[in-house]
Specification:
It is built from 17 helices and nine strands. The strands form three sheets. The chain has a five-stranded antiparallel beta sheet with strand order 6-8-9-5-7. A two-stranded antiparallel ribbon has the order 1-2. The longest helix has 20 residues. Among the domains are: 36 residues, no CATH class; 126 residues, Bacterial muramidase (Helicase, Ruva Protein, domain 3, Orthogonal Bundle), CATH 1.10.8.350. Helices cover 53% and strands 10% of the residues.
């Protein structure tokens, strides 16, 4: 802070409470203040993260230096305040992800990695097209993996986004452990504005829990090895309860647009028989005992209805959004259809 005080020393005062400063001095002051604003190493919350990481074997000096190198990014705070899942209706959101180009590239990605996709599908029970679609929605098959340094994203959200500080503080701790254990340069690892990484956009905690290399040996490289990314996505869905051979979602008919019926969350919690009493029925045969979640999304010409099953819910564990899961599902079906017809 001494530098900041020195910059104030040449100020010329003109009456009580008034002063004039040169433009050069003002720019210097702003530069200094910005530099301090980006240094999180002295934060009490940062110290707690460093201590927690140390308990997992991370060198505290290394961790403190890394957090000290983090830069606060205002654009990250702006981006997290307006995610597409909350600002766009379904018919606009769908156009982002279910496009002719993304479908074609999905078929190409499938062709390029057919052996790995087949092996992972057999091991996990997750259909190839769903794995392909997850990677397609998340990063356009590795083309768009994020432009922010992960350390900047997680530090900014941990220390300057109170609404979800607890979550991102934990992710920052997990990132320190991940970087320390993997040996990768943490300042070179980039991801989304929320700190998600690699082909499948894994958060650090998800990486440490579910990332799995294609051959099961060593740390999974989800940044540069698409086979490891495929393995990790399949393992994530399997671990969250994917049911091999079961349906994902079916069309539904609704006699009444009762908002309360369609606001019960993402987890299946009503039977087909119970929903029939509310005027919501599947467009194909499902047993009355089948547990589902009713879904209502706005298309351009009005609402459309579906019933999501367990596997639909599993997709929402990747991103807590019915629109996200529906985009993944529709992209998966379009990619599979194109490939079968080619």
């Amino acid at each position: 802070m001494t530098a900041g005080l020195n910059l104030l020393s040449p100020l010329r005062f003109f009456g009580p409470g008034h002063f004039m400063v040169s433009l050069f001095q003002l720019l210097c002051m702003v530069s200094v203040m910005n530099a301090f604003a980006g240094d999180y190493s002295g934060y009490e919350a940062a110290h707690a993260v460093i201590v927690a990481a140390e308990e997992a074997g991370v060198d505290p000096g290394w961790a403190e230096t890394l957090i000290g190198d983090a830069d606060r990014q205002e654009s990250i705070l702006d981006a997290i305040a307006r995610p597409a899942e909350k600002t766009k209706p379904w018919h606009e959101y769908r156009k982002i992800f279910v496009t002719d180009n993304r479908i074609r590239e999905g078929a190409r990605f499938w062709d390029e990695h057919a052996a790995a996709l087949s092996d992972v599908s057999q091991r996990t029970g997750v259909p190839v097209e769903v794995i392909v679609a997850i990677i397609g929605v998340e990063t356009f098959y590795g083309r768009i993996m994020g432009r922010y340094r992960v350390i900047d994203a997680l530090s900014t959200l941990a220390f300057d986004y109170p609404k979800r500080s607890a979550f991102f503080t934990k992710e920052l701790e997990q990132f320190l452990i991940l970087a320390w254990e993997s040996g990768k340069d943490p300042l070179q690892l980039k991801g989304s504005y929320a700190g998600a990484m690699g082909y499948g956009q894994f958060m650090p905690s998800s990486y440490r829990a579910y990332a799995l290399s294609i051959d099961g040996s060593g740390a999974a490289d989800i940044w540069d090895n698409p086979k490891d990314a495929i393995s990790s996505v399949g393992n994530y869905l399997r671990a969250h309860g994917w049911r091999k051979g079961e349906q994902v979602v079916v069309d539904a008919l609704s006699a009444a647009d009762q908002s309360s019926v369609f606001s019960s969350g993402l987890r299946p919690n009503k039977t087909v028989g119970q929903l029939a009493l509310d005027g919501v029925r599947p467009a194909e045969t499902l047993t009355p005992e089948t547990v589902v979640t009713p879904i209502r999304l706005d298309e351009e010409n009005g609402p459309r209805y579906w019933l999501g099953l367990q596997n639909f819910y599993v997709i929402t564990r990747y991103n807590r959004s019915a629109m996200y899961a529906m985009a993944v599902w529709e992209l998966s079906q379009a990619v599979a259809l194109l490939r079968s017809n080619s």
